[in-house]
Write a structure and sequence with these properties.
single chain; 186 residues; mainly alpha; Double Clp-N motif; two-stranded parallel sheet; 10 helices; globular; repeat; Clp_R_N
């Protein structure tokens, strides 16, 4: 599938791997793809993000992703569902971090241990890349660009889609900015 990726899309995938390695994450997640997209300049996805006002709010997006990572990757909807059951995720995070340090629930390895080599792609990242292919096909485009990865992030439920929506980036708004059909391909 990667042979169909544009230079920009390949750079996003490479950047996601580097982001995961930098935090010693066990796997590359969908959030790493979003972080790598935020690092891009001069690409279709970066122009779309800028047009939707994220250009000057990238740090806010990064902070929101980090907060979700501290909650073990739980979305706000998942946190709210647990709260309805009487489980206070903030309290759990506070207690775990009090004992084990900030970010202890992120799943990242701070001790330098873990598998040698590059982290593999987690289920979420794989799903996003597969959806990016479907989005490109739905738009009748031959190659998968970074804009397709961004569109795919908006249709896959989870933290990246939630954070993007909180910052005004939805599938509908992206489709308007990018033009074309941009079918959701759920």
């Amino acid at each position: 599938m990667f042979e169909r990726f544009t230079k920009d899309a390949r750079a996003v995938v490479k950047g996601a791997v580097e982001r995961a390695e930098g935090t010693r994450a066990r796997t590359v997640g969908a959030e790493h793809l979003l972080l790598a997209l935020l690092d891009r300049e001069g690409s279709r996805a970066s122009f779309a993000l800028a047009a939707l006002g994220v250009g000057e709010r990238k740090e806010s997006v990064r902070r929101a992703l980090e907060e979700a990572r501290r909650r073990a990757g739980l979305s706000r909807a998942e946190t709210d569902a647990l709260a309805a059951l009487g489980i206070d995720v903030r309290e759990i995070v506070a207690r775990v971090e009090e004992t084990h340090g900030v970010g202890a629930m992120s799943g990242d390895r701070k001790d330098g241990q873990g598998r040698p080599g590059r982290p593999g792609f987690g289920k979420g990242a794989k799903e996003v890349l597969e959806k990016a292919l479907r989005v490109a096909l739905a738009r009748r485009e031959r190659h998968i660009g970074d804009e397709h990865i961004l569109l795919a992030l908006t249709v896959r439920p989870g933290v990246p889609a939630e954070v993007l929506a909180d910052h005004g980036v939805t599938h509908a708004s992206l489709t308007r900015v990018l033009g074309g059909t941009g079918e959701a391909c759920a």
